[in-house]
Amino acid sequence: GSGGIMLPNHAPLVVAEQFGTLATLYPDRIELGLGRAPGTDQVTMRALRRGHQETEDQFPRDVVEILQYFKAPQVGQKIIATPGQNTHVPVWLLGSSLFSAQLAAKLGLPYSFASHFAPRMLGQAIELYRENFEPSEYLDKPYVSMGVPVVVADTDEEAQFLATSAYQRVLGLIRGESLKLKPPVTSMQGLWNTAEQLSVENFYTMAQIGSVETVRSGLQKLLDTYEVDEFIFTCDVYDTVKRLDSFTQLMQVKSGN
């Protein structure tokens, strides 16, 4: 999966041809996640020659346009994605608010909620999506994934230590500073104030941090609560070896070993 292509920054035909190329090279391995957030600041948006008002109004039309590019061309269709046509790349709608939930339901598309950084409206968005879902040529029933930040290590204590890199990154986001991942620290005290600590903790409401058993238990609780079909994981660990090890141990969570 793409994780997220922010459509305000890209022309639909370009996206369709890029993912059509990938689908041609790697059949049945490519999915396309589409989001409507610009994902950047106003200066960069202008550099991309995309206007905010245009993207807000245009997003549903752009999604429908991309869906058509992946099908067989219609009679009289003047613009054809090559490659792209007839690849039938699976498309997800991404979101952190209710708008994308409603659109995904209307179009009968799978829906992925960005609870790895914006968990507040997760339950409401999933409920809205499921209640308003219209069966389509893509799905006959709702299909949902949720984003979950994870750090898995040999012990809960080590995982909490490694997670301080992620906490520092969010703290930088709150302060408008660098988002570069920093080495972990033994304590966050002195690095944040009480209000900032609360903001970071709210950001990571869905985070699962700990040993294999701790993370397995936490993920099961999320599954019991939201009944999602898939999880999509992020892992902001500073050391590359430790990050890969975290994903390796995450697979143990899945396998039950």
Compose a concise summary of this entry.
This protein has 257 residues and is α/β, with parallel strands linked by helices. It contains 9 helices and 7 strands, in the order E-H-E-H-H-E-H-E-H-E-H-H-E-H-E-H.
| Helical content class | 40-55%
Outline the biggest β-sheet.
7 strands, parallel
Gyration radius over CA: 20 Å
Approximately how much beta-strand content do the residues carry? 5-15%
CATH superfamily of the largest domain: Luciferase-like domain
How many domain regions? 2
What is the mean predicted local confidence, pLDDT?
A: 92
Highest CATH level, the class of the largest domain:
Alpha Beta
Distance between the termini: 26 Å
The count of β-strands is 7
* Count, helices: 9
The CATH architecture of the largest domain: Alpha-Beta Barrel
The outline comes out as: globular
Instruction: Name the poorly predicted regions.
Output: none
Query: What structural category do the secondary elements indicate?
Result: alpha/beta
Order of helices and strands: EHEHHEHEHEHHEHEH
CATH topology of the largest domain, by name, is: TIM Barrel
Can you tell me about this structure?
The protein is an alpha/beta fold. It folds into 2 domains: 5-147, TIM Barrel; 149-229 and 236-255, no CATH class. 47% of the residues lie in helices and 12% in strands. The chain is built from 9 helices and 7 strands. The chain has helices at 12-25, 42-47, 52-69, 98-107, 122-132, 156-175, 194-203, 212-226, 240-255, and strands spanning 5-6, 32-35, 91-95, 111-113, 144-152, 208-210, 230-234. Strands 1, 2, 3, 4, 5, 6 and 7 form a 7-stranded parallel beta sheet that branches. Strand 1, helix 1 (12-25) and strand 2 form a beta-alpha-beta unit. Helix 1 (12-25) runs parallel beside helix 3, helix 4 (98-107) packs parallel to helix 5 and helix 6 packs across helix 7 (194-203). The protein starts with a strand and ends with a helix. The mean pLDDT is 92. GO terms for molecular function: oxidoreductase activity, acting on paired donors, with incorporation or reduction of molecular oxygen. InterPro entries: Bact_Lucif_Oxidored (IPR050766), CmoO-like (IPR019949), Luciferase-like_dom (IPR011251), Luciferase-like_sf (IPR036661). It comes from Acinetobacter baumannii. One of its GO terms (cellular component) is cytosol.
